[in-house]
Amino acid sequence: MLGEKLESKPSAIILHSFKMATTVSNLSVAMSKPKVPPFQRFANVGPAVLGGRFKVRSWDTFASVSHCTSVQPFQKDPRLCARKFDRNVIKAMSESSSDKQVAGLPIDLKGKRAFIAGVADDNGYGWAIAKSLAAAGAEILVGTWVPALNIFESSLRRGKFDESRKLQDGSLMEITKVYPLDAVFDNPEEVPEDVKTNKRYAGASNWTVQEVAESVKKDFGTIDILVHSLANGPEVSKPLSETSRKGYLAAISASSYSYVSLLKHFLPIINPDGSSISLTYIASERIIPGYGGGMSSAKAALESDTRVLAFEAGRKKKIRVNTISAGPLGSRAAKAIGFIDMMIDYSFTNAPLQKELHAEEVGNTAAFLASPLASAITGAVIYVDNGLNAMGVGVDSSVFKDLDIPKGHH
């Protein structure tokens, strides 16, 4: 996926994260006499509420639209239709809201804990996912590629990320703990000597997948949400037919099997009804020239593994497993493949929705998938790419120059 961490070293795995805070729960629907003016009112809701603002109309407006047929589930007395309920209103209320404002549909992750593997800066989908989860109330833990750990933690301490940590309510996303992680190694016995002695790993410990899972268990006991937001293809710039066996297997190891390993080691500490999410890219099923080195194969494997893992984790612990196929994002990591700006332009020109794709849109999708609102969704590939995945051709081709193709107004 164009927006994850892609490093130049085969072992370069990077990790992302976020945090939000919202306070809406126990949504109920009630009928009441309006102590409010009959004209339209708006109730502001928190940043993690679907729909943003919820419009309340007077009952006569509602009844005229529904012709009173939708009233039947609420009241079976047909005389109420003629009286229009005396201008009653339907109000969506939060029982915990003292002012009884309309709450909308909340994404509430308060009391949940998330571990996001793949956060090493404040630019990319991992960071956006962490931020959205935090805004919904989740506690945030992140795993950061070992060679990037010092600069990431230093930037956090020095306030370099403060602006991008801001949530919609003005507070800052808090990251409870940052763990060193290199997800291409399952346990210490697998780490080769040249990596152990590499100065970029000096001073770090307990950074293999097994050790990180054990550390999280020791520190916090359990988690509820696991996010895999990391990838690496050391030969990503090479065509597949020119990719070496070593480069191909490195892409699979870092970008696909790393997810299998993470879920394997974290599954024992994920609470029942939890959620696991990864990031993929349309190159798994469509030809994207330039996205080589086995990365397209790795993404295809990741999507296949998502379905199998959904079955296994679902049967074992009622854990939901999904992946988000995100469109191109101009993150620092995506710059490594060299043509990200061209892909962003192509997407803008050819996607059904002609607009820029924002990282927070992927983050908000992850928050939804992690929430009880997605309790029946598992084994799915969720596309967040302005609809580009639905296109069979590029409409910017000269072949279509004489067609009257609608263009967006900007």
UniProtKB/TrEMBL annotation:
It holds the Pfam family adh_short_C2. One of its GO terms (molecular function) is enoyl-[acyl-carrier-protein] reductase (NADH) activity. Pathway: Lipid metabolism; fatty acid biosynthesis. It catalyses: a 2,3-saturated acyl-[ACP] + NAD(+) = a (2E)-enoyl-[ACP] + NADH + H(+). InterPro entries: Enoyl-ACP_Rdtase_NADH (IPR014358), NAD(P)-bd_dom_sf (IPR036291), SDR_fam (IPR002347). It is an enzyme of class 1 (oxidoreductase). GO terms for biological process: fatty acid biosynthetic process. One of its GO terms (cellular component) is chloroplast. Keywords: Chloroplast, Fatty acid biosynthesis, Fatty acid metabolism, Lipid biosynthesis, Lipid metabolism, Oxidoreductase, Plastid, Transit peptide. Its main location: plastid. SUPFAM superfamilies: NAD(P)-binding Rossmann-fold domains. Its EC number is 1.3.1.9. It is found in: Plastid, Chloroplast. The keyword Oxidoreductase applies. Catalyzes the NAD-dependent reduction of a carbon-carbon double bond in an enoyl moiety that is covalently linked to an acyl carrier protein (ACP). Catalyzes the last reduction step in the de novo synthesis cycle of fatty acids. Involved in the elongation cycle of fatty acids which are used in lipid metabolism. Required for normal plant growth. Homotetramer. PANTHER family: ENOYL-[ACYL-CARRIER-PROTEIN] REDUCTASE, ENOYL-ACYL-CARRIER REDUCTASE. Belongs to the short-chain dehydrogenases/reductases (SDR) family. FabI subfamily. This is Enoyl-[acyl-carrier-protein] reductase [NADH], chloroplastic.
